[in-house]
Write a structure and sequence with these properties.
YjgH-like, 136 residues, single chain, 60s Ribosomal Protein L30, Chain: A, YjgF/YER057c/UK114, alpha+beta, 5 helices, 6-stranded mixed sheet, deaminase activity, RutC-like_sf, Bona fide RidA/YjgF/TdcF/RutC subgroup, 6 strands, globular
């Protein structure tokens, strides 16, 4: 079995090791990113929802950047929202600051009852940019 090609964002490796999961794995030209929440450096949630969503995207973008990607490389998105009926509008008002322009990635939205103290989580699959070595 091949060893997993893990991507760690700067400064957060201890948090992922403590929680026993990888932030992202490179495989066959794709980047599979674990769900990202609006956690501060110590792992605690941002208390206000729009700040939590912004922090989740910032955490996601740090992982994408560590892998040589941007959100423009994202092809599939899954979001998890606690109490989507109450929180959807707040979350969707933040998205344009991070989402980019059309064509947009695919999206699956899932309403959940619990996210370990968070209200929003985003996980993505991105296409890794081709390098000269991978084009050969």
């Amino acid at each position: 079995m091949n060893k997993r090609d893990v991507v760690f964002p700067a400064g957060r490796q201890a948090l992922y090791e403590r929680n026993r999961y990888s932030p992202a794995i490179r495989s066959d030209g794709f980047l599979f990113v674990s769900g990202q929440v609006g956690s501060r450096e110590d792992g605690s949630p941002e208390p206000e929802l729009s700040a939590q969503v912004r922090r989740a995207f910032d955490n996601l973008n740090a992982i994408l950047q560590a892998a040589g990607c941007t959100f423009d490389d994202v092809i599939d998105v899954t979001v998890f929202i606690v109490d989507p009926e109450a929180n959807f509008d707040t979350i969707w008002n933040v998205l344009p600051d991070y989402w980019g322009s059309a064509p947009y990635p695919t999206l699956t939205g899932i309403g959940v009852t619990w996210l370990y103290g968070f209200q929003f989580e985003i996980k993505v699959i991105a296409k890794l940019p081709r390098t000269d070595a991978s084009a050969a």
